[in-house]
Amino acid sequence: MDFEEDIESILYIAREISVYRIPPLKANEGHRANEWGDLAKPLWKGRLRIIETSKGVSLQFEDAQTGELFAKAEYHPTRPSVEAVLDSSRYFVVRVEDDGKKAYIGIGFAERTDSFDFNVALQDYEKRYKASLSPPSTSSDSPSPHMPAGPKKDYSLKEGQTFSIAIPGRAKAALGGNLFGLETGSSESKAGSGGGGGGFPLLPPPPSASKRQ
Fold first, then answer.
1. pLDDT tens column, 174-195
2. Per-residue pLDDT tens for 142-163?
3. Which of 52, 47, 55 is nearest to 125 (CA)?
4. What is the torsional sign of CA 153, 154, 156, 160?
5. Looking at the UniProt record for this protein, which Gene Ontology cellular component terms does it annotate, in alphabetical order (predicted)?
């Protein structure tokens, strides 16, 4: 009897994740975790696994002890089912499907490192998927990078030969001068050139199971 087994590859595991019921998305606005109510009281807690098979990739929300499936979301790079919120790097919105019905849930990671690894896992899969759609070109019209394009020209200086570089506001400096010692700005201007980047607001992380009483 012919038997073919579909091999599963686990791309990512989050040991603990919180799931939230979220309000409808407002027109022309993104999702915000601070609008989900009390983040310390999630709808469900469990684990998340990103699994790849020959059919594609799926996000599976499972009971951490029994492995019972709570929800499942298919992930495809051309129609992503995961969206980051606008006010935190630890919370996301996921589109889940069940018997043709679609729903949106919020998910939260207790640690930023977990949400970072979650993002990286999805991005790595997306890169591999796009690379599989555009294999390297083997056209004979393209010149080989290993073949010389033509005779090489000699640009080296002959003995006793020099050339000059014109620097605005300064006298010409001959080659061999202190070109790398030229100042590019005062210490005050360099110190004031650094800018402060904005970051995500510090929303509270989902409650950890180890901290609950």
1. 444 443 343 444 444 444 444 4
2. 554 445 555 556 656 666 666 5
3. 52
4. negative
5. clathrin vesicle coat
**pLDDT at 184 (0 to 100):** 44
Domain spans in the chain, listed from the N-terminal domain onward: 9-133
Instruction: Locate 198 and state its tokens.
Output: 């904005």
Q: What is the residue whose two structure tokens read 């400096």?
A: 173
Just give the CATH number of 9-133: 2.30.29.30
CA–centroid distance for 121 within its chain: 8
Kindly give, in sequence order, each residue whose CB lies less than 8 Å from that of residue 82, ignoring residues fewer than 6 positions away: 59, 73, 75, 92, 93, 94, 95, 122
8 Å CB contact between 208 and 108: no
